[in-house]
């Protein structure tokens, strides 16, 4: 299968640690899980967020910074995370390439869909950075867009601190119940916080299945007993 995995930036740091942006034990666990999926014969691409480094809305709230500028700064944070993952993966023997929607030829490739597909066919992990290269789009939307462009069979959204989709935030609402399977239409109707709503709508429109799992269960994401499934219809 061809899989695209969406990782949040926060998943790269360790909760309760020293407050650093990256934690090697976490990076090692992610690398091991990616390797496990790859060893099963799957082609894998990643989209990484930048929330561990920067969130644009926080800057616009504190300073007179326009939203597009803040969004571009957030895109740069995703590039930094992508480079960290690339180099770390390669120290573990996992061939990896970074493709950026904003041209940065000194440090990574520019996003060219056919080239990215070729890397995946050769067994390399592909990391897509800098979002879609335009403001007002989240990395959730980027993940759906790249999954569709790459012809992915499934988008795996790896969540930090939860094991799937719930009717509410299980950390704040003890009555929140786990959802094993649901359609994209129901997610939108019930305003469930699975992902950005525009991302869910895009996946629904184009028939893309989304699997939501905990970040520590990436290697088992294809097992039916793991996580939650958002079906197009």
Automatic annotation (TrEMBL):
**Chief site of localization:** cytoplasm
Subcellular location per the Swiss-Prot or TrEMBL entry: Cytoplasm
Q: Give the residues the record marks as binding UMP.
A: 50, 71, 132-139
Pathways involved: Pyrimidine metabolism; CTP biosynthesis via de novo pathway; UDP from UMP (UMPK route): step 1/1
Q: Which residues bind ATP?
A: 6-9, 51, 55, 160, 166, 169
A Pfam family that the UniProt record links to this protein: AA_kinase
Give any GO molecular function from the UniProt entry: ATP binding
Q: Which UniProt keywords apply?
A: ATP-binding, Cytoplasm, Kinase, Nucleotide-binding, Pyrimidine biosynthesis, Transferase
- A cellular-component GO term for this protein: cytoplasm
Give the E.C. number(s): 2.7.4.22
- Aspartate/glutamate/uridylate kinase domain ranges (all copies): 1-213
Task: Write down the superkingdom of origin.
Answer: Bacteria
One GO biological process this protein is involved in is: 'de novo' CTP biosynthetic process
**Record-linked NCBIfam families:** pyrH_bact (TIGR02075)
Subunit-structure text: Homohexamer.
Family affiliation? Belongs to the UMP kinase family.
The task this protein performs is described as: Catalyzes the reversible phosphorylation of UMP to UDP.
**Name of the protein:** Uridylate kinase
What is the source species?
Candidatus Lloydbacteria bacterium RIFCSPLOWO2_01_FULL_50_20
**Lineage of the organism:** Bacteria, Candidatus Lloydiibacteriota
